[in-house]
Design goal:
With 367 residues, this protein is of the alpha/beta class. It has 11 helices and 16 strands. It has 2 domains: 185 residues, Rossmann fold; 75 residues, no CATH class. The strands form 4 sheets. It has a 7-stranded mixed beta sheet with strand order 7-6-12-13-14-11-15. The chain starts with a strand and ends with a helix. The chain binds flavin-adenine dinucleotide (FAD). The site of flavin-adenine dinucleotide (FAD) has 35 residues, from helix 1 and helix 11.
Length: 367
C-alpha cells in the first residue's frame, strides 16, 4: 500500500477539482505544483486590495447549470458582465459587434439600416468566392470598415504575422448582433468569484495536502513511489521528454503597473485594435469586482512567441502540432497508472467551465 491514492501534478482547476472529488470519496491525494502558488492560470493575487488576475483576465461563463451551481457552492460570484471596448486610433467601439458598434462606425440607428450597411460593405468583396487567408475571409464576412478598424491590427498582433499569412479558417463567421447588447458572452451564467479565483481553488483543495515549488520531473521516481496513481496536468510533450517533438504554443507577456488613480480606463478590458500600439489589451483588474480602492492595477498584454522560458498559453492546434499531439496521446493511452487531464496534458484550449466539467467526468469514470 502506498501512502497516497493519487499524486496530482498541478494545482490548477483540473487538479483541484479532481482532488476535491477524490477526497469526498475517501481517497488520499497529494497535490504538487512547480509554481509557488495554487490555482494554476486562474491564480489571483491581492495587490493594493485588488484581486489581480496574474495570468490574464479570466471571466467565468457557462450555460451548464450544474457547473454554475458547483462553483457557486464554494464561493459567491458577482454579476460582472464582460463588455470589452475597442480603441482604434483614439476612437472607441463597443464589442462584440452589435448595434452600438454599428452606430459608432456608421451612425446607423435601426437594425435594418445596420444590415443594409454591412451588405453594402460586403458586396465589394463578393468576387472572392474562396478566401485564401484571414484578410480575405474577414472582408467577405464583414467588409472593409469592420476589418480595418476592429479585426486586422488586433489579429496580426495576436498571431505575430500579417493577416494575409493567417489561415482563413480562424474566422468562420463574424458574430453580428443586431441589438444594443454589449455582453460579450452568450452564456446564461457569468461572473467573477468575489474575492478572486484563488479563493475558489483554496476551497476546492481544503483538507488536501499540497506541496508547492516542486517540479515533478526533478523528483519523478520518488514522487511516483508515493502514490498508486498519478493525475498529470502538465505538458504532455514534457511528460514524454519531447520524444516526438515539441508542441507549439502562443505565449503572452504582461506589463503591470500600479497607478495612483482610482479609475484609469473605466472598464475592465480595453482592446487596442491598431497595429501601431504594441499591446493587444489593457486590463484594469479592479473593475472585475467593482473595486473602489484608491489606487488601480493595470496590465498591458503583449502576445509573444513561445520559447522554453515563456509560459505556454494558447495551443496551436494546426495540422503539424495535432499530428505530434496524437502520437503523445496514443502513447499516453498505454499508461494505466497515469490520468492525463487539463489544458496542457490534452493540448487543448479549455475555458474554465469546460475544464471543471472534464475533471468531474474524469473522476466519475475513475471512482
Ligand atoms: C490568457 C488566458 C485567458 C483566459 N481567460 C479565460 C476566461 O476569461 N474564461 C475562461 O473560462 N477561461 C479562460 N482561460 C482558460 C483557463 O485559464 C483554463 O481553462 C484553466 O486555467 C485550465 O486549468 P488547468 O488545470 O487545465 O491548467 P493550469 O491552470 O495551467 O494548471 C496546470 C498546473 O500544472 C502545473 N505544472 C505543470 N507542469 C508541472 C510539473 N512538471 N511539475 C509540477 N507542476 C506542474 C502548473 O504550474 C500549473 O499550475 C484563459 C486562458 C488564458 C491563457
Amino acid at each position: 500500500m502506498k501512502e497516497y491514492d493519487y499524486l496530482i501534478v498541478g494545482a490548477g482547476l483540473f487538479g483541484s477539482v479532481f482532488a476535491h472529488e477524490a477526497k469526498k470519496k475517501g481517497k488520499k491525494c497529494l497535490i504538487i505544483d512547480k509554481r509557488n502558488h495554487i490555482a494554476g492560470n486562474v491564480y489571483t493575487e491581492t495587490i493594493e486590495g485588488i484581486n489581480v488576475h496574474k495570468y490574464g483576465a479570466h471571466i467565468f461563463h457557462t450555460s451548464n447549470k450544474e457547473i454554475w451551481d458547483y462553483v457557486n457552492s464554494f464561493v459567491e460570484f458577482n454579476r460582472f458582465t464582460n463588455s470589452p471596448i475597442a480603441n482604434y486610433k483614439g476612437k472607441l467601439y463597443n464589442l462584440p459587434f452589435n448595434m452600438n458598434t454599428f452606430h459608432q462606425l456608421w451612425g446607423v440607428i435601426t437594425p435594418e439600416e445596420a444590415m443594409a450597411k454591412i451588405e453594402e460593405q460586403r458586396s465589394e468583396y463578393a468576387h472572392i468566392t474562396e478566401p485564401k487567408n484571414l484578410e480575405e475571409q474577414a472582408l467577405v464576412l464583414g467588409g472593409k470598415d469592420i476589418y480595418e478598424k476592429l479585426i486586422k491590427g488586433y489579429t496580426e498582433k495576436q498571431w505575430g504575422r500579417p493577416a494575409t499569412e493567417i489561415p482563413s479558417f480562424i474566422i468562420r463567421r463574424l458574430p453580428f448582433r443586431f441589438t444594443y447588447d454589449n455582453n460579450y458572452f452568450k452564456d446564461i451564467y457569468q461572473g467573477i468569484p468575489i474575492g478572486g479565483y484563488t479563493k475558489l481553488v483554496e476551497k476546492l483543495v481544503e483538507g488536501v495536502e499540497i506541496r508547492l515549488n516542486i517540479n515533478y520531473f526533478e523528483n519523478k521516481e520518488e514522487l511516483d513511489a508515493l502514490a498508486e496513481k498519478v493525475v498529470y496536468t502538465g505538458k504532455i510533450d514534457e511528460f514524454f521528454n519531447f520524444e516526438f517533438g515539441e508542441l507549439d504554443y502562443r505565449s503572452l507577456h504582461f506589463e503591470n503597473e500600479i497607478i495612483d488613480t482610482p479609475n484609469y480606463q473605466g472598464n475592465a478590458v480595453i482592446n487596442y485594435t491598431d497595429k501601431d500600439v504594441p499591446y493587444t489589451r489593457i486590463i484594469e483588474h479592479k473593475h472585475f469586482e467593482f473595486g473602489t480602492q484608491e489606487k488601480t492595477y493595470v496590465t498591458k498584454e503583449y502576445p509573444h512567441e513561445f520559447s522554453k522560458d515563456n509560459e505556454s498559453y494558447y495551443p496551436i492546434n494546426d495540422d503539424k502540432n495535432q499530428e505530434i499531439f496524437e502520437k503523445y496521446q496514443a502513447k499516453s493511452a498505454q499508461y494505466n497508472n497515469v490520468i492525463f487531464g487539463g489544458r496542457l496534458a490534452e493540448y487543448k484550449y479549455y475555458d474554465m467551465h469546460q475544464v471543471i466539467e472534464k475533471a468531474l467526468e474524469t473522476v466519475a469514470k475513475e471512482l
